[in-house]
Every structure is written in structure tokens, then in C-alpha cells.
Amino acid sequence: MTVLKSLSDVFTLRDGHAIPCVGFGTWQSQEGEVAKQAVKDALEIGYRHIDTAYAYYNERSVGLGIQESGLDRKDIFLTTKLWNTDRGYETTLKACQKSLELLGVDYLDLYLIHWPANDNVYDDPVKVNKDTWRAFEKLHKDGLVRSLGMSNFLKPHIEQILDDAEIPPVVDQIEFHPGYPQFDAVEFCRQNGILVEAWSPLGSGRVLSDARLQKLAEKYGKTTAQICLRWELQHDVIPLPKSTHKERIISNAQIFDFDISAEDVRMIDELPTFGYSTYSPYTLPF
Ligand code: A2P
């Protein structure tokens, strides 16, 4: 476990870039004032890592939030994701330009393939994934994207990319929370120098009412959300909590002043499956 003391402490990616250890999530943050204000609040509070996606339909507001924060672009780690309908070589190059325009920036810190192509949607999903990755490598060489990664890729999908990648992926963002930790995928990523980020680190709110987690929260004098986020950090996984409420954005950042004991970490690790989104990269119909 890496010792981390604040939101701006970093992990070092395999490509040498630094990535702040907690990201601010924006899935389901409504385009417009709500998404913009949430990003401004997060940056004011000290978050330095913002995660969005073309498919969240809020890149414009996220970009405005960054601009209005008054912070230097270089002091913010910004991630967005390529949407499924843009997979493929030329379409990926265009989609990245579009995201850059919407965000109002001239480079991304991290670009992720949002979901792997699967055979529910394509005759040859492996070719689609490889073509998309070639475009990612071009975007990197052109200086538009600093680090390359993927989201929702599990072992077989990652192997497709590693098979002939010139520039290997450095991040995989997967569903990871108490009740659905996907430890096999985390272990495979680790063996291949890929840092894991947790989407739905609070199970999109679904795990917060769990009595076992609430009991632990009481024991540590913390909120259930803080227990989830701390547990993720103790696994060297980057949580990306989303909130559009300032008091929650603040409290989700107060996770550096306690440790969950090894015994309690194990208890959370071993909880049976609950709070799973049901989104599987093997069967997703888009
Ligand atoms: P809201 O944006 O209204 O605050 P995840 O990050 O796992 O996707 O979870 C996000 C969901 O959890 C959102 O519905 C968000 O609601 C809610 N949420 C975020 N932080 C907290 C918190 N500290 N306590 C309760 N609910 C939270």
C-alpha cells in the first residue's frame, strides 16, 4: 500500500507521468451549471484529477469548470473517454479532436477507450480494438494525449492490445467497490504495469446503505462513503467519487487521516457480491 497524505499526492504511471491519487467523477453530472459548479467546487477543495467522458455529455461544462477555477491547465490531470460509436482508426482521431474542442483544452492527460468492442456488436471486435489502439498511439505521438488507457477491459481484452501495442496502456478504469472488487482484473493489470481506477467507487450510491459497511463506518467515526474510498486507496486503486453536492465533495476528500485495519480490509474484500451495476464488457449490447 502506498502512503498517501492528500488529494494531490500521486501515483507514477508506467509511462512516467504522475496521476493524483483521487479523481473527481462526473458521470451523471448534468451538463450546464451543475456539472460546471461541481468541477469548480472540487478544484477549490483540492481535487487535481477530473474524470469525464464524451458519453457523459458534459465535457463542455467540465471544461468551463476547469477554466473558471483559475488553476493552470498543467496543474490539473484531465481524463476523458472515447465513446463506443467512435471506435476504429479514423473515427477515433476525429472523436478525440471533438472532445478536446468541447473541453477547451489542447491536450488530455489521459484518454481511455470507454468499453472494449465485443462480438455482440462486431463481427471482428479484436480488429476494432486494435484499430482504435493504433489511433490512440497516433494521438500520443501527435502530442494530443499524454497517457493511454482503457476502461472496462478485462484480461482477454487487455491481452488483445498488449499483443502488438507499440505504446502499452498504463491505466484501466473498471467497476470496483465493496461488493464488486474484480480482484482478478486488478491482479492482471498489476502484473502488466497498468494502474487501476475505480468507477462507481461508492457503487453509485448503492453500497452506502449496507449495514456491514455502516457498522465499520461507526467503528472508525467516518461515513460509509469514506470507508469505501479509503478501502480503495489501501488497495492502490484510484477512486473517482462523483457528487454534485459540495458538502459531499468535501467529505469524500477526508480520507487521509485514518487507516482501515488489515483485518477490516479483508472483511470488506470478502463481502459477497452486491451493488454490481450489471454492465459486463462481454455482453454489453453497444
Ligand atoms: P450526489 O451527486 O447527489 O451527491 P459513485 O461515485 O460511486 O458513482 O457514486 C455517486 C453517487 O453517490 C451519486 O448518486 C452521488 O450523489 C452519491 N454520493 C456521492 N458522495 C456521497 C456521499 N458522501 N454520501 C452519500 N451519497 C454520495
Topology:
Layout: E1 10-12, E2 18-20, E3 24-25, H1 33-45, E4 49-51, H2 59-69, E5 77-82, H3 89-103, E6 108-113, H4 125-141, E7 145-151, H5 155-164, E8 171-175, H6 183-191, E9 195-199, H7 211-220, H8 224-234, E10 238-239, H9 246-251, H10 262-269
Parallel strand pairs: 3-4, 4-5, 5-6, 6-7, 7-8, 8-9, 9-10
Antiparallel strand pairs: 1-2
Helix pairs in contact: 1-2, 2-3, 3-4, 4-5, 7-8
Bound molecules: adenosine-2'-5'-diphosphate (A2P).
Textual characterization of the structure:
The protein is α/β, with parallel strands linked by helices and 286 residues long. It has a domain of 199 residues: NADP-dependent oxidoreductase domain (TIM Barrel, Alpha-Beta Barrel), CATH 3.20.20.100. 38% of the residues lie in helices and 15% in strands. The strands form 2 sheets. An 8-stranded parallel β-sheet has the order 3-4-5-6-7-8-9-10. Strands 1-2 form a two-stranded antiparallel sheet. Helix 1 packs across helix 2 and helix 2 crosses helix 3. The radius of gyration is 18 Å and the shape is globular. The model has no long low-confidence stretch (mean pLDDT 97).
Q: Provide mean pLDDT, rounded.
A: 97
Q: Output the number of helix runs.
A: 10
Order of helices and strands: EEEHEHEHEHEHEHEHHEHH
Number of strands: 10
CATH fold name of the domain at 18-204 and 238-249, please? TIM Barrel
CATH superfamily membership of the domain at 18-204 and 238-249 = NADP-dependent oxidoreductase domain
